[in-house]
User: Fold these one by one.
Assistant:
Number 1:
Amino acid sequence: MRRPPGNGETASKGIGGWGLWGRHEPRRLGCAGPDRCGQALLQIGINMMALPGGRHLDSIPMSGQRLHLMQVDSVQRWMEDLKLMTECGPGPGDPLQLLLKRGWVISTELRRIGQKLAQDRWARVHSMSVRLTCHARSMVSEYSAVSRSSSQEMGQIEKLLMEKCSELSAVTERCLQVENEHVLKSMKACVSETLSTLGQHFGQLLELALTREVQALVRKIDASDNIYTTESTTGNLFSLTQEGAPLCRIIAKEGGVVALFKVCRQDSFRCLYPQALRTLASICCVEEGVHQLEKVDGVLCLADILTDDSHSEATRAEAAAVVAQVTSPHLPFTQHLSSFLESMEEIVTALVKLCQEASSGEVFLLASAALANITFFDTMACEMLLQLNAIRVLLEACSDKQRVDTPYTRDQIVTILANMSVLEQCASDIIQENGVQLILGMLSEKPRSGTPAEVAACERVQQKAAVTLARLSRDPDVAREAVRLSCMSRLIELCRSPSERNSSDAVLVACLAALRRLAGVCPEGLQDSDFQQLVQPRLVDSFLLCSNMEESFV
């Protein structure tokens, strides 16, 4: 499979595509808290579920979508956790929410016990071990009360889990009576091993239980011909995808991708297409999801949706989001999606049209992100975009604040331009559409909010703008236009002033490369000091000089 060639300014991977993390970054300005459950489980060595709270928090609500467990207000979440921490009695409820909430409480207790054990705080270790036993017993009891009949395998693991809980409580109680440090040290190793085994049993039990619940949801979607039932069940499945890659793998393995594409192929469920597609995009962050998509001819289904104007814009935008996910250059397994090439021309044409007609920034972002990733996927895509006058479409959109209003969107546009700029024919289109002026503007991209995500997006825009300029400046007409517009002055400022590039090394390297390309065409545009420090030395020497500068010398 062909990839866009590099030309020395930076590696093609370096200027980045837009995978799952990228997609949800602009949709979740102001994300939720850290991965508490995942951290707790991983710290005790359980290879189970990592729950990145708010990782996929979307700003556009979906009908029937429940407020996700990890997306609620932090004070409200703390109150709920406090209630769970202090109540061990069983009660009715949704099995999935019960598992996730109790799972978080137990994993937190395991992590805290590990911390207290490291500090030799034996009284706390014992009291927390007793409390852990209560929570484990409550989870088993509560889940048994609300779930279907338990399997033999689950019953065996439940028994092993409770035995280890009892063993942990007993051994930590004995440790309270021991004063000999040498004996206590050997017992500490025993407690640590028991804690680790207990954690493994807990992870196995949780995985089995969640798998059963996922199976039930998938069966319900697969068998349903009722729009309300399908909507509710798909919403539940979407909520589960937000719990991280391990649950997405379970969903893919248990037929979730097959069931969702079945929904997307039934006209009676058209109003549910956006929700089903959004769920598919989340599942396809894992290899199993992409493989399942290919097995059910998912790419062909996406192409049909994108090229059918009778579908709503929201539906086509979510189909674009799935395309963006499955073509992400950051996920190595997406590069083997052979079926994509068969439908690529149809998909690229539809995405350019969606960019041109987008009624909102969100729709334009999803469509342009898919195009950006496709330009990494195969070089033919760049040639197709040139034929479709995509440069004009993208550059015109830059002056439309309704479509292009964030650095995340400009990141997608400049990614496409950077990859297209390897084609010689691209330069004339850029000049004709006043593209050099827009690229200069991207070199001055600044964050509005100062959030880490937005700052990082601005750095990517600056870096890719410099890369694009360097590539396009092979054409003397582009180089002269860049000099006329004072691009060299801006590049020098970015090189010499760390604050202008947020001290980004990637931006610095790209700007030095672009400056050297322009200087080769128009050396008269540089002062002697700039030439001697930024152009004449080896690139690494200029890089070291600029990276050590405290502030601009200009």
Number 2:
Amino acid sequence: MSQEPRPRGLTPAPQRAGIQGEWRWQKEAPWERVGKMSSPGMDGDPKPPCLPRNGLVKLPSQPNGMGTASITKGTPAAKNRPCQPPPPPSLPPPSLAAPLPRAALAGGLCPSAGLPLCGPASAPTSGPLVERPPLATDEKILNGLFWYFSACEKCVLAQVCKAWRRVLYQPKFWAGLTPVLHAKELYNILPSGEKEFVSLQGFAARGFEGFCLVGVSDLDICEFIDNYALSKKGVKAMSLKRSTITDAGLEVMLEQMQGVVRLELSGCNDFTEAGLWSSLSARITSLSVSDCINVADDAIAAISQLLPNLAELSLQAYHVTDTALAYFTARQGHSTHTLRLLSCWEITNHGVVNVVHSLPNLTALSLSGCSKVTDDGVELVAENLRKLRSLDLSWCPRITDMALEYVACDLHRLEELVLDRWAAPLLHRRCVRITDTGLSYLSTMSSLRSLYLRWCCQVQDFGLKHLLAMRSLRLLSLAGCPLLTTTGLSGLVQLQELEELELTNCPGATPELFKYFSQHLPRCLVIE
């Protein structure tokens, strides 16, 4: 009997017994079974995946808006070739048609053709097959791939398998991150009801250099020191928030953890100034104290006497006066470059005099919330701290346009000026005296890159015209400025180098304006 000639490109399917349904012809694609074995939702030939370099294929977006990626193996000739289907696979023998064991699935299968990820999608040769490691566990590939994920995503990926965990638990993937541990997370409850301190081996493997402990006591800190392998020398930064640490606990912590050079105490109301005198070490270069009710002038005396190498000091203390700022000595004058005085309500222009004479090398100064500082205090800053690159005058309601004139005339290196950084509309405490005249002074500052004008309620469209000459601006905040109109804001498209523009709570910021910015400022992030 003569057989009908077979069309080119079609290959007959082998006859198999014991399986319902029948096989049909398929053009250059894996066999597709009609009936129960057919893939749902595929009426025609599947679209061949694009094979870019390194064999990475991006699949279509899922309904939740997140795309997925699949790793396949392409031939070398396909690296620089336009998108094309992979070579047809060879016919598998009947013995390979059975379901694959779990070990084979662990090696990875090509989603489209059912091919192992460790081999090329080409016909077998007569020679011996060369074993290759699966791409899904190739450490060289994974070391490059995992850089594209966030810290939260890395925590999830580390639970996939031991190979991924081994690659991800390298310190390079966690540099600069600080784990936050609450007191209740430090213990496991045993069946007997007793508490057991959790294992911190995973943190040690990743080599974290800093920790933030929330709500801990003296006993919790001692347990942490005993159970974390790197606590003695490897931890460089410690942050304690809303904790009940006492003078004794603070002393033990800094005595045992000899590597700590950066210390933050926030909302810790059980230690006193005597605890600072007994525990602070000369190795500390960065100190932040906020919302600690027992901190007053004597605490500043301890800091100035015991920390000669202090480079950065952030202080939020409602009871610190001008007298405390006179305690800084010449030793801090050479080393300290950053000083933040936050909500120090008792500090006046006299305190500013002490600061500029004791710390002449400051490059960053914040007087945020120092509500008694006036234009004269800003004039002292501008005349004596010529190295300043960042100045924060937010929440200083006595500041006027005259202060901005002093800043523009003397601070030629200034890169960041903050006239309001916060979002709560307490206008009686803000820089409400800044007008268009003050912006005209700032327009002469060629080095200014970041300007925050949040809730400066007297700024109008005329003042914005002065800012259009500031080609060095990269960040501009006009949030909460009620007098700015759509017409005035539209002129900001002349700042083509702008990278971030904040317009929240701005009545003149309309949907049409945001669309206009998206067309004419494509590289700028506009915050609505």
